[in-house]
Description:
Shape of chain A: globular
Largest sheet of chain A: 7 strands, parallel
Distance between the termini of chain A: 30 Å
Radius of gyration of chain A: 19 Å
Order of helices and strands of chain A: EHEEEHHHHEEEHEHEHHEEEHHEEH
Strand content of chain A: 15-25%
Structural class of chain A: alpha/beta
Helix content of chain A: 25-40%
Oligomer: homodimer
Number of helices of chain A: 12
Amino acid sequence: MAQQNSVISGKVLALSGGVGGAKLARGLAEILAPEQLTVVANTADDFDYWGLRICPDLDSVMYALADLNDTERGWGLAGETWQTIAAMRRYGGDDWFQLGDQDMATHLFRSQALRRGDSLAQVTAKMAAQLGIGLRLLPMSEQPVATRVHSDIGELAFQEYFVRERCEPAVKSLEFSGLAQASMQADFAALLSDRELKAIIICPSNPFVSVDPILSLPGCRDALASAAAPVIAVSPIVAGLALKGPAAKMMAELALPASAVAVAEYYQQRYGALIDGFVIDSSDAQLAAQFRTLAAEVEVCPTVMTDLDSKVALGQACLQFARRFAN
Amino acid sequence: MAQQNSVISGKVLALSGGVGGAKLARGLAEILAPEQLTVVANTADDFDYWGLRICPDLDSVMYALADLNDTERGWGLAGETWQTIAAMRRYGGDDWFQLGDQDMATHLFRSQALRRGDSLAQVTAKMAAQLGIGLRLLPMSEQPVATRVHSDIGELAFQEYFVRERCEPAVKSLEFSGLAQASMQADFAALLSDRELKAIIICPSNPFVSVDPILSLPGCRDALASAAAPVIAVSPIVAGLALKGPAAKMMAELALPASAVAVAEYYQQRYGALIDGFVIDSSDAQLAAQFRTLAAEVEVCPTVMTDLDSKVALGQACLQFARRFAN
């Protein structure tokens, strides 16, 4: 990852869910020196499957940062094959969650390391380094947190809702099981009090199931508020739609209008005046004025990331936006 | 598996190692009704790898019985692919033992079931049934037994010797760690006192690392000797060579001549007058007279199994031979 003319000196923290957040993280990685950037991924959709520990968001970010992700399918590894799951079907084993044959190595390597006593951060760092990723990729927490979806068909584990039920059940509420006993991963927590931290970027990830688990970790909200760096959030809602995933559908079910403003209002209601600036898509420019009532700055720019150039451009926009809050 | 004209009524027990034993088991399965045949596989070469429980002999037999084995390569599944191990190499993970992508499902399904509390026999039965295997396939024991190879380069776990070191170190002695604490799998033990048992066939497997672990289980030798059925052993040495694997090389290292007679003498020295009849290959016909001194019957027939017909023919020969001991 070549360092381009950096628009910011000091350190940057990106908080990410899966695919959407991974795209912006990839853009930031192109702009910043590896030692400048830390990406913290949500782990509340982690789960056990086939006896393995699966960390979908962490892996999506890792694969995107290593340029190994499948950009056509939108998830998983490029050139993936599906022999193990086909053989698993012969045994009548679970097959609702698709694990590819290359992807399998990640889950096997991680699960074995965890059983041997590595922390999730340690094994993630080992794998990321082997894939040539120089920046720091961290899980939000070492303790298991599990998103539970209270839906019209009952309570579901997140991946049951997301993959097995294809987000079809209507969401009534979400619960992060284990959250109260979890703590922020140590390097993540330390970075928030680092004077060198110049920007905190909340990636365009699902507010309810990707960002909330991170921000709801004990002490996280206050540590973010106390950090010297501004908190910038990129809206995952563009022109009333979620680019990927169930964010817009969830907003409807949670009686929120699906708009970038409603996302900002939701964050303000839940976390108070935590977020200093919102990045919204050019197609939502007419909404900019509404952010004034939230006492938040707003940056309007293209936020739809379709290739590396657009990922880098959004990363640049976020960093330049953050600089405006400096002193 | 169609039942052909059965040459024997009642039950048959086959004791097997991996590939060679699996071939004869497949032949027997073609001849006998599923409820007649029990195959017990060696589990002393089982080991843990990538956090999974690997049972090479049990799987070789299962794959052969399901006609899923790769007959060209001689081990593993037909049509196998190798994506997971390639991806594991990216992480710097172990890659000395080749696990294919289809094969992986077996290890995942088994490991998960064992962690959930299934016995090895239970999960083996589940998988075998799903693969359409009607007969009973059993591990020799539920307790872990691990063959340790004392060699000229030090002590090795069996698969380290067999796969990683390609059988190159000279074997000084073998040890079956855990054997004293292990017991015969319950259905295996029960079958030996079943009056319906009409033949016990020791498949043409490696005497030292496949057959010895089974026969050395506490109580096994005596239970075999007390069984009503004759014990028939098929020589794994043909014309002074092992058809597959290191049996002949081991015999040289253990100062035994590589011959069918030496195998018989080895068994007699170790187990006394346990084996009632030996099946040797037609190419070793001139050795037949030497078995008289062992007080054992000998059957001379083609024992090299290259296709289903030759597997069935050897199975028929073994069963007809066993009938000669009736009353």
